[in-house]
Amino acid sequence: MIRILSKASLILIVFTTLLTTKEVQAQQDPQFTHYMYNTLSVNPAYAGQRETLSVVGLHRSQWVGLEGAPQTQTLGIHSPLRNERIGLGLNIVSDALGPARETWVDANFSYTIPLNANDLKLSFGVRGGVHNLNTDFGLGLPQNISDNAFADISLWSPTIGGGLYMHTRKWYLGLSVPNFLQTQHYDDFQTSLATERIHFYAIGGYVFNLNETLELKPAFLVKAVSGAPLVADVSANVWYKKNLTAGLAYRWDDSVSALVGFQVTPGMFIGYGYDLTTTGLNNYNSGSHELTLRFEVKRMGRILSPRFF
């Protein structure tokens, strides 16, 4: 029956389902299942922490089969400078949702301080850039809608964020605020604009050596914003001979995920994740797909050794 409904009717049904489903939580910033490989998007203090030039690209197709569902692409490039205490990076995020597309372009700077002889380090990070919100309500909506709420717009606003990142070769813990400034977002539950509140992120992970060939890395990402419940992601990945990784993830009251990745060469990693929706929205989609590619360049005088984070 749904297949013969107009696009506008289908969108109305889905939005009504979202509003009446208790488990669903508002999504202003894009979400990632591969947050453990996409740390620069979360925390600017991560810039340069791979100890080499690192380029990470990600594509996410969310809620496949649902008209107007989110489509997200990210590109992160970062590297330490010669003294290795300073890291620089560029992060670009494009997030499409129905008739709206949001784009972030941020420059990232980090400074790292060694805390002791056991490889414990603390990195401070700042970021600055621009955010663009562009809407085109001619996509799939009836032509007779004249409400001002559906007027096409293009809004530009500045972004300023910061973060802390403490780490060793075995574990990491980061706290960040991607943007201290309020800006206009497209509300995914209502076809209107909404003002973004400040988001707080906490990310962490630990690497356990199980034996000579296996390593286990549990990780988490927690997102908090005033007026909304916490959003928590937890995952566990096993790394086999530093070449193959596989694991499971869970997003609280949202989805369960399967992840797999291959270290094709010392400088190239490819990862895939599949999310299965666990809310009432699973009646309208066939899950979410995420693909990650990472390329890294050997630095002069160093051996490029694959790392878990």
Describe the protein.
A hairpin with a 2-residue loop joins strand 15 (255-265) and strand 16. The chain is globular, with a radius of gyration of 20 Å. The strands form 2 sheets. A 14-stranded antiparallel barrel has the order 1-2-3-4-5-6-7-10-12-13-14-15-16-17. The protein contains 2 helices and 17 strands. 6% of the residues lie in helices and 51% in strands. The chain starts with 6 loop residues before the first helix and ends in a 12-residue tail after the last strand. It is mainly beta and 309 residues long. The longest helix has 14 residues, at 7-20.
Q: Which terms would index this structure?
A:
309 residues, 14-stranded antiparallel β-barrel, 2 helices, 17 strands, 51% strand
Number of helices: 2
Largest sheet: 14 strands, antiparallel, barrel
Strand content: over 45%
| C-alpha termini separation | 46 Å
Identify the strand order in the major beta sheet: 1-2-3-4-5-6-7-10-12-13-14-15-16-17
The average pLDDT score comes to 84
- Residue share in helix: under 10%
Poorly predicted ranges (pLDDT <50, ≥5 residues)? 1-27
Describe the SSE topology:
Blueprint (H helix, E strand, L loop, with lengths): L6 H14 L18 H4 L10 E9 L9 E10 L5 E12 L2 E15 L6 E15 L18 E14 L3 E7 L6 E3 L6 E3 L3 E8 L1 E2 L4 E12 L5 E10 L3 E8 L3 E11 L2 E10 L10 E10 L12
